[in-house]
Specification:
The complex is a heterodimer. Chain A folds into 2 domains: 72 residues, Beta-grasp domain (Ubiquitin-like (UB roll)); 72 residues, Orthogonal Bundle (DNA polymerase, domain 1). Chain A is built from 6 helices and 5 strands, in the order ββαβββααααα. Chain B folds into 3 domains: 175 residues, Aldehyde oxidase/xanthine dehydrogenase, a/b hammerhead (Aldehyde Oxidoreductase, domain 3); 233 residues, Aldehyde oxidase/xanthine dehydrogenase, molybdopterin binding domain (Aldehyde Oxidoreductase, domain 4, 2-Layer Sandwich), CATH 3.30.365.10; 102 residues, 2-Layer Sandwich (Aldehyde Oxidoreductase, domain 4), CATH 3.30.365. The two termini of chain B are 47 Å apart. In chain B, strands 3-5-1-12-9-10-11 form a 7-stranded mixed β-sheet, sandwiched between helices. Chain B has 19 helices and 28 strands. Classes of the chains: A alpha+beta, B alpha+beta. At the A-B interface, helix 3, helix 4, helix 5 and helix 6 of A face helix 1 and helix 16 of B.
Chain lengths: 155, 706
């Protein structure tokens, strides 16, 4: 089937099996920041923003994406908000092996766009669906707190 | 703070934060095809026949017939085949690859392959292995290795003893759960085979390819790609998918990608060894511990892998940080038809320290003495000898470490208060991690070598050490730039490529900063003397420090080149209704010598602690009849952001005499001590002994006197 959606502000049209996973379609469209970690919606490595909401793209059938806005890090990294999040992760040491990082960056955007001044508890809740095996999470939480201050006024 | 400890921006940061870092599954060279592994579904059987369907054009199978030289993955013993031939020994053992351009077609082909097995009764536990008879899995014996060593006059002391305190502990499997599964790409240009992938140890794969292909180094190239976590799980295991893609690439003359699915990865890759550890402590009339005998049994799974070396670290760690002069220590790594156990951050240390530290806790309770005071009485000091009679040459500051951690956590006040507050508990642990290869492994087995090249104002590092998230691309540059006293942006360092990088050893054993970093420092010192020369390079080989010695036949001498030290306190409260453990806080103090980058160090500490927390109370992984009961991220539960307690860590600075700028090893240490501190806290909270990890609510329900 043909599916039309907006990827990082640009219209795209794909002709694929209706049950194809959004994850695979995005990777075929060279969005390699979208990683497969588990394929069952547990790890969040394949996180993307679907109409601004954080989703696991491995659980999204492409047919349901018709007409939607999809944001991956390939698009998001060109924004001013990304620069603030990047700086936050730099000063607070939120990156180690980097495989989960794109998912956490988009999770941070989802948290801050919902609430520009989240508490630590809200950040923990907001990244609950993203697994990281390297950091132990605290430095990622600190990174999002730093990003919130650095990017004050952007969200 | 030493200048080198000041944190700088990681060199891998920009690529990773922006999603531009290219991991193995992201690479699609022209003409690339896919491979998928067909695996044994039974724990032990003879393969009677394999029926394959007619393959569509462009699709092919790779199996043991495609191996030009030797069907062996060389680790310690050459017992593990690259592909099974006429028998299988564990569920998940690779039998063949199906390769081609469409993943869906590959799966259809795999569905049509019929393997006829003749089952053999599997051996599925340590207990079964102990009493099993022929046919054995490994040679003509039930185990891969059995070791024994003694210190002092054990038999004499046992006769003198007035009291024996005994414990038996059990530890479970743990899965590394790196976020990127095992991933490899093979290429063949008609002369050279090139394997790129997710790995810790490029030269392990080089060696495996040499054995399998019978080719010399000039035709073999291995390159590390950015690697999405490893934790030991990409030490020896990647040699299997590495050789697989090489064979497929040679057969098809096309690039071949092999990326494991998560369930496949958990089912068939290596795990932390389950153990049973028994400790008897012999006390004299003044309740002094005068001797100990300890027996460690581990489940090595179906092939020997690194089980021998892991067992060595277990039995060299299991006497703990204590100077008990008379010891009898035994260890056995059993062969079973379970998944192969192997390297995992801590490498035997977490099991050993869980056991000895719980035993110390239990002795303190039995003697009605404070657990810290009891430990302090026996702490090893500079000049003492280890359990293997190696002299501890460096200053040991365990008193300072424990004083700091007890003060930070308010340990004594809480320990006393929780005696009357139900469901609350606090526990402690004191531990070390031997840094560098076991015994004289560095000079005898690894023989690490590094290369440093100067071209005008630029310097390039050539080492085989990998960046696996632990910061090697940053810390190695810092060591070289600081030694040369040049701006760090003039120092270059890339992911290792065996074509350019000498074998500086695997990225394991908390040895990268300590051993490879020191070699780089020595090399940079030489380079600095010749700085006026425009372009030159220096190769440096490891020299075993003259104050160390090791006899591998009788396990006597310095079991490790250096040690790092630590203490943990964990506070818990048990939920009265659900029996869940609520961890209120973890406090941690370490002596890692001089930290090379404070933020990287903090990341290693917190990440290691949270893995230790998972090991202690969350990550249940059980084998039933050779099949793992938890094999997805839905059933195998690792900590999420909602599971982490407040963590407070601190370093005491006590520079190493051999590490660069006084640094010791760090990567593994923070995982090692969490489980016993947590389990001791749970014991105080529920008032009964629990002698297994992970501790589940069900265990607490069974043991609780709430």
């Amino acid at each position: 089937m043909k599916v039309n959606f907006v990827l990082n502000q640009e219209s795209v049209s794909v002709d694929v099996e209706h049950s194809s996973r959004l994850l695979d379609i995005l990777r075929d469209l060279h969005q390699t920041s979208v990683k497969e970690g588990c394929g069952e919606g547990e790890c969040g490595s394949c996180s993307v923003l679907l109409n601004g909401k954080l989703v696991n793209s491995c659980l999204i059938a492409i047919a349901t994406v018709e007409g939607c806005h999809v944001t991956t890090l390939e698009g998001y990294r060109n924004t001013e908000r990304f620069e603030a999040i990047k700086r936050g992760f730099e000063v607070s040491g939120g990156v180690q092996c980097g495989f989960c990082t794109p998912g956490f960056v988009l999770a941070a955007e989802a948290i801050l766009s919902e609430n520009p001044d989240p508490t630590i508890a809200e950040i923990r809740k907001g990244i609950e669906g993203n697994l990281c095996r390297c950091t132990g999470y605290q430095m990622i939480i600190d990174s999002i707190l730093s990003a919130k201050d650095i990017g004050k006024g952007l969200w | 703070m030493n200048k080198i400890s000041e944190s700088i921006k990681r060199y891998d940061f920009e690529d990773k934060i922006s999603g531009k870092a290219i991991y193995t599954p992201d690479v699609h060279p022209e003409g690339m095809i896919y491979a998928k592994t067909l695996r044994s579904k039974v724990p032990r059987a003879k393969i009677l026949s394999i029926q394959t369907p007619t393959l569509p054009e462009g699709y092919f199978i790779v199996d043991h017939n495609d191996i030009p030289e030797k069907n062996v993955i060389p680790v310690v013993f050459d017992d593990q085949p690259i592909f099974a031939t006429d028998e299988v020994n564990y569920i998940g053992e690779p039998i063949l690859l199906v390769c081609g351009s469409e993943k869906s077609v590959i799966l259809e082909i795999m569905d049509k392959i019929i393997i006829e097995y003749q089952p053999i009764k599997p051996i599925v536990s340590i207990e079964e292995a102990q009493s099993c008879r022929a046919p054995f899995i490994f040679k003509e014996q039930p185990h891969f290795v059995h070791y024994e060593y003694q210190k002092g006059n054990f038999d004499e002391c046992v006769k003198r003893a007035k009291r024996v305190i005994s414990d038996e502990f059990r530890t479970g499997y743990q899965e590394q759960a790196y976020l990127e599964t095992q991933s490899m790409i093979g290429d063949y240009d008609g002369h050279t085979v090139c394997v790129r992938g997710s790995m810790q140890c490029p030269y392990y794969i080089v060696e495996s390819l040499k054995v399998a292909l019978g080719w010399d180094d000039t035709r073999i190239r291995v390159i590390q790609m950015p690697t999405g976590g490893a934790f030991g799980g990409k030490e020896e295991y990647p040699s299997i998918p590495g050789v697989h893609v090489a064979l497929a690439a040679i057969k098809s003359k096309r690039p071949v990608q092999l990326v494991y699915e998560r369930q496949e990865d958990i089912q068939c890759s290596t795990k932390r060894h389950p153990t049973i550890i028994r400790i008897n402590s012999y006390l004299d009339e003044s309740d002094d511990i005068i001797a100990r005998d300890i027996e460690v049994k581990s489940d090595g799974g179906a092939y020997a892998g690194l089980s021998s070396v892991v067992l060595q670290r277990m039995i060299f760690s299991v006497a703990g940080c204590y100077n008990v002069e008379n010891l009898m220590i035994k260890g056995t790594a059993f062969a079973t038809n379970n998944v192969v156990a192997g390297a995992f951050r801590g490498f035997g240390g977490p099991q050993a320290f869980y056991a000895i530290e719980m035993h110390m806790e239990n002795i303190a309770n039995q003697l009605k003495t404070d657990p810290i005071r009891l430990r302090k009485k026996y702490f090893v000091k500079q000049g003492d000898t280890s359990s293997t009679q190696g002299v501890f040459h460096d200053l040991i500051v365990l008193d300072r470490i424990t004083d700091e951690v007890t003060a930070m956590s308010d340990f004594f006040e809480k320990r006393s208060r929780f005696k009357s507050e139900k469901q609350k508990g606090i526990g402690c642990s004191v531990f070390f991690h031997g840094c560098g290869f076991t015994g004289a492994g560095e000079p005898d087995l690894i023989k690490p070598s590094i290369r440093l090249k100067k071209d005008k104002s630029e310097v390039e590092i050539f080492i085989s050490s990998t960046e696996i998230g632990q910061g090697a691309l940053t810390t190695m540059r810092k060591i070289v730039a600081t030694t040369l006293d040049i701006p760090i942006n003039h120092v270059h360092h890339n992911y290792p490529d065996s074509r350019d990088c000498p074998d500086s050893g695997p990225t394991v054993a908390s040895r990268t900063v300590l051993i490879v970093g020191r070699l780089l420092q020595d090399c940079a010192v030489e380079m600095k003397k010749r700085w006026d020369e425009e372009s030159f390079e220096i190769t440096q080989n490891y020299i075993y420090p003259s104050h160390l010695s090791w006899d591998n036949q009788i396990f006597k001498g310095n079991a490790y080149p250096d040690y790092s030290w630590g203490a943990n306190v964990v506070e818990v409260e048990i939920d009265e209704t659900t029996y869940e453990i609520d961890v209120k806080g973890i406090w941690a103090v370490y002596d890692i010598g001089t930290p090379i980058d404070s933020k990287i160090v903090q990341g290693q500490i917190e990440g290691g602690i949270v893995q230790g927390l998972g090991y202690a109370m969350m990550e249940v992984l059980e084998s039933k009849d050779g099949k793992l009961s938890q094999d997805t991220f839905t059933t195998y539960i690792i900590p999420s952001s909602l599971d982490i307690p407040p963590i407070f860590s601190k370093l005491v600075e006590n520079p190493s005499s051999i590490g660069p700028f006084g640094a010791r090893g760090l990567g593994e240490l923070p995982l090692v001590g969490v489980a016993p501190a947590l389990a001791s806290a749970v014991q105080q909270a529920i008032g009964t002994k629990i002698s297994k990890i992970p501790i589940t609510p069900e265990d607490i329900l069974r043991g609780a006197q709430l």
